[in-house]
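Students often ask why we bother encoding 3D structure as a string. The short answer is that it lets us treat folding as translation between two languages. Here is a chain of 467 residues written in the first language.
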Amino acid sequence: MPDTTFDVAIVGGGPGGYTAAIRAAQLGMRTAIVEREALGGICLNWGCIPTKALLRTAEIYATLNHLDPWGLSAENVSFDVAKVVKRSRDVAGQLNRGVTGLMKKNKVQVFDGAARLAGKGKLGMEKEGAAPVELQASHIILATGARARTLPGIEPDGKLVWTYREAMVPDIMPASLLVIGSGAIGIEFASFYRTMGANVTVVEILPQILPVEDEEIAAFARKRFEAQGIAIYTGAKVTALERGNASVTATLDLGNGEVESLTVDRVISAVGVQGNVEGLGLEGTGVKVDRGFIVADEWLRTGEPGVYAIGDVAGPPCLAHKATHEGVICVERIAGLESARPLNKRRIPGCTYSHPQIASIGLTEAAAKAAGYELKVGRFPFAGNGKAIALGETQGVVKTIFDAGTGEMLGAHMVGADVTELIHGYGIAMTLEATEEFFMETIYPHPTLSEMLHESVLDAYGRAINI
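And here it is in the second language, the structure alphabet:
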């Protein structure tokens, strides 16, 4: 019989949960993790990782279809949907096995089942076909993640109307597709399916696509997506879906009284997520739920002593790297480490892995102005960077925002090739509370895309060299 008494028990084995488990084990705590589906959670199995595998396929496919500028040629370029999906699933499977190995390496006890609070320091665990088990733990961390939000009248059915899960394992490549919602998930799928040949329409209820991004960057990205053939409607909404045998007809309210009908093969609903708070035994506890997410303080403590919440279930931004960081903070606080620091949400980078990519950190220009800052804003275009020109990736821009009075970096926003691999440079600087001098005095290797980080800062202070 496995041990059932622990220092820390974690409900949910996604990025936040398994990272918290590893850190707890490193600190000498007897640790358990309960997962009802697959270790790695949505991110590893159905989100971050497998979507990037799909997008990599799309990137290669796009290159093969536009080889002439490179002096190359290829004939009869095609793809096999089943093989594309299989590679994506194989990547997820490999990483799932890796997390399983990490649990064994760190001597974390893994329980297969669903858990709920069952009294102070207790978890009741159930698995169909198995006897119930009760775990005892001094500290219980809820890391149950989130799921796709649904809207009345456009509920996914898994066949014609998809969530991200179905969108990742298509049995056919639809000739036409409607994406409802233009956040990172919606835009990534729109980019993938358009690159693979589908006619794609994106509908967003807010005034701009990528609503959390800087307005200027979102507008630039929109122009690039539209140039690729993606039809985009903002300030619009889907009011009804009529499902046929093999297609869906959507009624679009485009605003200003204009209504349009659109028939497509498939619909992807990407209208956000909601926390998995049901079935956790929160009733009668001090745990509070607000707008579908568990309320936690800066140390991830809920209103119930000994119960914590991390990751997506603890509220936005719903990002894997935010969850992992919270897992470490939570456990180190439990262990009493003086080095533990609360999470600064302004320093959480956001990434969208479409083509072009979008990456950002900190305040947008509009938010910084609204906060009362006097600004210095710099921009540098990809077209002015030697490496970008050599790569054939001249469509993009790096934008930086500084407090004119102190030189503090308030935000950085990028659109273009590989910007998701560049944003961490600004993240490190913000963590160090560096000013513009830090960037100006840093030597960037040539020729690299990273030189644009330098040039954008120089531009904010009237010192750009290559524009």
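Translate back mentally: The chain has three domains: 5-148+274-345, 161-271, 356-460. Keep this in mind for the problem set.
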